[in-house]
Structure formats: structure tokens, C-alpha cells
């Protein structure tokens, strides 16, 4: 049973008893996929327990010198390793539960492989973000309780996305929102004390880091995984369903490739560059397989040129699966890729290779060159079908000689039968594949069809036929390619836009606490002009005007006037507000930047499979010899840490690099406009994990 029990598409916020769920998320649907994901979560917990026990036993073995204790520990280690191996095999069984993810329509097609979603633990942002807002932005963190709750609700919804475009948009929204959160709260010079834990989707081993990039990379992986589940769910018995499957697998490959190129040093093995490269190949191979099925869907005409086309398409699918199997067999991927996936790739490589030889055999045996036929066209097609003809044969002579055509056709049938037998043997060696009945049926029918055709044309002197069928050149009319994620099409509102424009009010910049300036406009003259646009700056300040004497400085940002928030107001709007007071006292709050330029930094990182390594940050400070006092104040402020950051002193060597978003235009809180995605202008070099 698959997603047939899924509720109707919810509204953006729909009441359900005492709670609600977002559009693209339905945690209440008890589908086969959700049950499978729950089993995955339970297995992850058991694997975590076993890993901890093994680590403790290994540490005890290193520490003790008592022989009896060492023997006892070795015995316990053997039991723990055995249990861990059984748990990982059970997890592999969930990864190959392809039937759960397939279309609900009854189909006679080879199943496709989806990726399971990565599981995570709950994260509480509230205390840490409130503390940072108070310390860094000098605002009451409790005024942002609703925004923090929205962020946590969005993260919780992303744990159970629906298997459709709404679910993908939900995950993309959270990914983009993380970009805003990173710029607002995650400074490159300190850690926030928020621990993110994600489980490896292939091994079940957890990875925990105080690094928002682990969160972002894991969400990207789940976007790609969700696309694979959408692709496998498509109805492959109709043209539209196959086109959707091709598109979904290409998008999955694009997301996983973007993850590989952007987050190059991830501590989770399922997101390592080597593994992601293999997963990208697997998605493109399944997209190419869907292209072949789309060609065959209307039915194959037993016509010469049509058979040439189909044979080369089948050869293309067999070729990409052969390359995929070779990649899966290489270290270090071989140790962690599910054995059943590698076996299925090998099965499909032989199966589609067999189909290619069968179609070529059919066009050679069933179609004789008749008078009036297009000899030149057939000769050209046959010559382009092979890299080179068998020794002693030429394309035109073979087309005209019925005996040669039949002998060459039967040699292709023998190769087809050999491929079929190899695919059946490969299935028999894998326990997981033996349990997939539809796979066995498809392979059996194709095998019997090739044997039947060979039997119909078998002759006594076939043993004397020494012609070896040449390899078939692969060719496709639709070359599949990766489709990069289009984050710019997803509009997201920054939850924390009340803090001010991101170009100024970010974690990378520091400023003085808001200062209250009381002054009057003498004879309608403010004594300064304004510049900039959201927020507005004081410019051309008269040092003897009322505002300057009250403490205003050149370059100050105006954050409020008479309790009216001005962070998002334009120059004309702020000027209009100031002029409205006439000769009355004006109370204006301003802040001054402590850093004249935003900090620039380079990042370097090391990576080791299965282990978290040190991430170092080199911050390049731009010194100003004429502003020593300002520099000293900056240093003093940077030392002021909240009580939530005390523990970070122990992990200074593990400080992680962060992704700096560029300045983006954001809507004013009053008009509730949505923000464009900041990732359309991201520099991929700045996002190295």
C-alpha cells in the first residue's frame, strides 16, 4: 500500500484537531512510505546504541591490561559487531523496498530505486536566538517568539514532506529560510551552541555538529531524495507519467550534484562527494531508462528503421547502467552502497544489453531487402549500428544476402540469451532482488522471447557459424542531463525581517547599542541630509547643529523616530516624517557601525570518512591606524558572550565556516512582501563546507 491514504492537499495552515500542518506536509497520513520512514527512524536509534556500545568496548580494550577483562571485552565486541551488521542489513532491506515507492497502477516494468529521507532530531532555537537578539541586536528577544516558533514549525514540517511538488517547495522554503537565519544569527567567529543531528540514510550512523551547514546540506539531500520518490511514483503506463518521471530524476540529479559541488566536505558519508557522484549517475540512468520506456510505450512496429532506433536506445540504457555498476564497485563507495542496488544496476545493464541485441536480430532476420527498398538508407543505418562489421561482411552485401543476414541475426540472439542468463543469475545471488516478483517476471519473459526466436531459426550447422555479434553503438534521441534546483522560483519571507535590512543588520556586522538623539529643526533646517535606502544614514552633518550636539554622528543609521520603526523606510519617507514635527522636539534613535567594512574570510576544511574533523577559519581584519579607539571597543564587544556560549570555548578548534549571503532586497514589514531567494546570486566558492 502506498500513498493511497494520503489526505487531500491541505491549505497553507489547516486545522487538524488541536494542531495544524503546513501545505506540503502531512504527518498524519499513515502510508506505506511513512511507515517505512518510521522503521528507518527506529533502526537509526538501534544503530546509534550499538555504535556507542562498540565505541565504549573499544576504549576499554585500549585502556585495560587485564587479560581476563580483555578477553571478555573481545567477546562482547564480537556480539556488538554482529548485531550492528544485522541492523545495517535490515536498513539495506528498507533501502531496497522499492515496491512501496512505485506507482499504485499495476505495471509490468522493472522497479526504480528511490532514496529514503534522512532522519533528524528535534532542535530548539528559542533560547539561543532570543539571547543572540538581545546581545547582538539590542532588542528584546521575547518580541520575536512568534518568528522563532514559525521557524521551528517549518523545520518540524520538513520532517514529513508530502510526495509531490508541494513537499519539494516546502523543503526549498526551509532551505532558503536557513540562508536568512545564517546571515542573521550565525557569525563566522563564534558558535551558537545549537546542535544539529542527522542520520546517514545508508548506514544509519548519526552525525552531530554545531554547524548550520550540516542542516542545509541534509535538507538539500532530502530535496533530491523526494524527487526520486516522486519519479518512482509516476505512472509509467502513460506518456505524461513517463515524462514526469524523466523530469523528476533529472531534477534529483541536479539537486544532488549541486549538493556535491557546494558542500564539498560533509561529515555524513551519504553526502560525501564520492557517494553523491554515484547517486547522480543512478538518477540519470533511471531517467534514461524512462526515456526508453517512453519510446516503447505506443508499441513497437516491426519495421527496419524503427528497430534500429529502439536497439540503439536500449544499448544506451545498458551502457549507462554498466557505467553505474562500475562506479558502485569502486572503493570507498563499494563498502557503503547497498549490495542490492549494485546488483540491480548489473541486472539492468545485462537486461537492456540483451534487448538491444534482440532488436538487431529481429531487424536482420525478419526484414529482407526487397526490390524498390531504400538500399542506401538501410546500408547507412546498418553501418552506423556497429563500430565495425564482422570480418568478411559489408553492410550492403549483408543486406542483400539472406543467409548472411540470418547468421548475423542468430549471433545477436546468442549474445542476447547470454545477457539474459547473466541477469537472471545476478538476481538469484541477491536475496533482496529474489523477493521482487515483478523483476523476476520481466526478466523471465524477455529471456523466453529470445530463446523462442532462436529456436525458430535454429539449424543443424549453427555450431559451424563462427560469426561473433559486434557491439551495438548506443544512441539516444533524448540525452538526459541534470536540471539544477531553481530556488529563485520559490518566494520566501524572511521570518526575522523586523530586525532590519539584511545588508546592514546581520551577524557579520557590529554596531553600537541604539542611542537616543533629541534635537529640534531650527527654522526648518535639520542640520544634516539623508542618504542610503533602507536603512537611511545621516549625511553631511553640520557639527554645530542641534542633532550633532545631541550626539549624532556622520554615517549613523536611523532606526526609529518617535517610536516609529525606520529600518525599512526610504529617504523620502524618513525626511517626510522628520519634517512633520516642525519646530517640536524630535527623538531619534541611531546606531553606528563598529566595522567600517564587512568582515572577509577564507575557509579551509579537512574531511575523513565517518569522522568530524577540524574546520578552521581565517578572518582577515582590515585595520585602520587612525581609529585605534574604535578597534579597541570592537574587541571588547566581541568578547561579550552570552551564558549559552560558554561551552564553545572548549571547541574553538571546531569552529565551522559559514556561508555569507550577499545583500538582498527585502520587503518592508508593513506591506508584508515576500523576499526573493538569496541563492540566485550565491557564490559557490563561499559555500564550501
Automatic annotation (TrEMBL):
**What biological process terms from GO does the record include?**
glomerular filtration; negative regulation of stress fiber assembly; signal transduction
Outline the extent of the PDZ domain.
522-583
Q: Which residues form a coiled coil?
A: 33-90
Keyword annotations for this protein, in alphabetical order, are: Coiled coil, Cytoplasm, Phosphoprotein
The record's Gene Ontology cellular component field reads: cytoplasm; plasma membrane
BRO1 domain mapped to chain residues: 111-460
What is its subcellular localisation?
Answer: Cytoplasm
User: Where does the record place the region Disordered?
Assistant: 1-21
Main localisation: cytoplasm
What domain of life? Answer: Eukaryota
Family matches, as Pfam families: BRO1 (PF03097), HR1 (PF02185)
Q: Which InterPro entries match?
A: BRO1_dom (IPR004328), BRO1_sf (IPR038499), HR1_rho-bd (IPR011072), HR1_rpt_sf (IPR036274), PDZ (IPR001478), PDZ_sf (IPR036034), Rhophilin-2_HR1 (IPR049603), RHPN1_2 (IPR047138)
Q: Where is the REM-1 domain?
A: 26-100
Under SUPFAM superfamilies, the record lists:
HR1 repeat, PDZ domain-like
Q: What does this protein do?
A: Binds specifically to GTP-Rho. May function in a Rho pathway to limit stress fiber formation and/or increase the turnover of F-actin structures in the absence of high levels of RhoA activity.
Q: How does it assemble?
A: Interacts with GTP-bound RhoA and RhoB. Interacts with both GTP- and GDP-bound RhoA. Interacts with KRT18.
- Show the PANTHER family listed in the entry: RHOPHILIN (PTHR23031), RHOPHILIN-2-RELATED (PTHR23031:SF5)
Q: Provide the family line.
A: Belongs to the RHPN family.
Q: Please report the name of this protein according to its UniProt entry.
A: Rhophilin-2
Whose protein is this, by species?
Answer: Rhinolophus ferrumequinum (Greater horseshoe bat)
Amino acid at each position: 500500500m502506498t500513498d493511497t491514504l494520503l489526505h487531500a492537499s491541505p491549505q497553507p495552515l489547516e486545522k487538524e484537531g488541536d494542531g495544524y500542518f503546513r501545505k506540503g506536509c502531512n504527518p498524519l497520513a499513515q502510508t506505506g512510505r511513512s511507515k517505512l520512514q518510521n522503521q528507518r527512524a527506529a533502526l537509526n536509534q538501534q544503530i546509534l546504541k550499538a555504535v556507542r556500545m562498540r565505541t565504549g568496548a573499544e576504549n576499554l580494550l585500549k585502556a585495560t591490561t587485564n587479560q581476563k577483562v580483555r578477553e571478555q571485552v573481545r567477546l562482547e565486541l564480537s556480539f556488538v559487531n554482529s548485531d550492528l551488521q544485522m541492523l545495517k542489513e535490515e536498513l539495506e532491506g528498507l533501502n531496497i523496498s522499492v515496491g512501496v515507492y512505485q506507482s499504485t497502477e499495476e505495471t509490468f516494468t522493472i522497479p526504480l530505486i528511490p532514496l529514503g529521507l534522512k532522519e533528524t532530531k528535534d532542535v530548539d532555537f528559542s533560547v539561543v536566538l532570543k539571547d543572540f537578539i538581545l546581545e547582538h541586536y539590542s532588542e528584546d528577544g521575547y518580541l520575536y517568539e512568534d518568528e522563532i516558533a514559525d521557524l521551528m514549525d517549518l523545520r518540524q514540517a520538513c520532517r514529513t514532506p508530502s510526495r509531490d511538488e508541494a513537499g519539494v517547495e516546502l523543503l526549498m522554503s526551509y532551505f532558503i529560510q536557513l540562508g536568512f537565519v545564517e546571515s542573521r544569527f550565525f557569525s563566522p567567529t563564534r558558535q551558537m551552541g545549537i546542535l544539529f543531528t542527522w542520520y546517514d540514510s545508508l548506514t544509519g550512523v548519526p552525525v552531530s555538529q554545531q554547524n548550520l551547514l550540516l542542516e542545509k546540506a541534509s535538507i538539500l539531500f532530502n530535496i533530491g531524495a523526494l524527487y526520486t520518490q516522486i519519479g518512482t511514483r509516476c505512472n509509467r503506463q502513460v506518456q505524461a507519467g513517463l515524462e514526469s518521471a524523466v523530469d523528476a530524476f533529472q531534477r534529483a540529479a541536479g539537486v544532488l550534484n549541486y549538493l556535491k559541488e557546494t558542500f564539498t566536505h560533509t561529515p555524513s558519508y551519504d553526502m560525501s562527494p564520492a557517494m553523491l557522484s554515484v547517486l547522480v549517475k543512478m538518477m540519470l540512468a533511471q531517467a534514461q531508462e524512462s526515456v526508453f520506456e517512453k519510446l516503447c510505450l505506443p508499441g513497437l512496429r516491426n519495421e527496419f528503421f524503427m528497430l534500429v532506433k529502439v536497439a540503439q536506445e536500449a544499448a544506451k540504457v545498458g551502457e549507462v547502467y554498466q557505467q553505474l555498476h562500475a562506479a558502485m564497485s569502486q572503493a570507498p563507495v563499494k563498502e557503503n552502497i547497498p549490495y542490492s542496488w549494485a546488483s540491480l544496476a548489473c541486472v539492468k545493464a545485462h537486461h537492456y544489453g540483451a534487448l538491444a541485441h534482440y532488436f538487431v536480430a529481429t531487424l536482420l532476420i525478419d526484414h529482407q531487402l526487397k526490390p524498390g527498398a531504400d538500399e542506401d538508407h538501410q546500408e547507412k543505418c546498418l553501418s552506423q549500428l556497429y563500430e565495425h562489421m564482422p570480418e568478411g561482411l559489408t553492410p550492403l552485401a549483408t543486406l542483400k544476402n539472406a543467409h548472411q543476414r540470418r547468421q548475423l541475426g542468430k549471433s545477436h540472439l546468442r549474445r542476447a540469451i547470454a545477457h539474459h542468463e547473466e541477469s537472471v543469475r545476478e538476481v538469484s545471488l541477491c536475496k533482496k532482488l529474489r523477493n521482487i516478483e515483478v523483476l523476476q517476471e520481466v526478466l523471465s519473459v524477455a529471456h523466453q522471447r529470445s530463446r523462442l526466436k532462436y529456436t525458430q531459426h535454429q539449424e543443424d550447422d549453427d555450431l559451424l557459424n563462427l560469426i561473433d555479434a559486434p557491439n551495438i553503438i548506443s544512441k539516444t534521441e533524448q540525452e538526459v542531463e541534470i536540471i539544477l534546483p531553481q530556488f529563485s522560483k520559490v518566494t520566501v519571507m524572511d521570518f526575522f525581517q523586523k530586525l532590519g535590512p539584511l545588508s546592514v543588520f546581520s551577524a557579520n556586522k557590529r554596531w553600537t547599542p541604539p542611542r537616543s538623539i533629541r534635537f529640534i529643526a531650527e527654522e526648518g533646517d535639520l542640520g544634516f541630509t539623508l542618504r542610503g535606502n533602507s536603512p537611511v544614514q545621516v549625511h553631511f552633518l553640520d557639527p554645530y547643529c542641534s542633532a550633532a550636539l545631541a550626539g549624532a554622528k556622520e554615517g549613523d543609521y536611523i532606526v526609529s523616530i518617535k517610536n516609529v520603526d525606520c529600518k525599512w523606510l526610504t529617504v523620502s519617507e524618513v525626511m517626510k516624517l522628520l519634517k512633520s514635527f516642525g519646530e517640536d522636539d524630535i527623538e531619534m534613535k541611531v546606531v553606528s557601525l563598529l566595522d567600517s567594512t564587512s568582515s572577509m574570510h577564507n575557509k579551509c576544511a579537512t574531511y575523513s570518512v565517518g569522522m568530524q574533523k577540524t574546520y578552521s577559519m581565517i578572518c582577515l581584519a582590515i585595520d585602520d591606524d587612525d581609529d585605534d579607539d574604535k578597534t579597541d571597543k570592537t574587541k571588547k564587544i566581541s568578547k561579550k558572550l552570552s551564558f549559552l556560549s560558554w561551552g564553545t570555548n572548549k571547541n574553538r578548534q571546531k569552529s565551522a565556516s559559514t556561508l555569507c549571503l550577499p545583500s538582498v532586497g527585502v520587503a518592508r514589514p508593513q506591506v508584508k512582501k515576500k523576499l526573493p531567494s538569496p541563492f540566485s546570486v550565491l557564490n559557490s566558492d563561499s559555500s564550501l563546507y
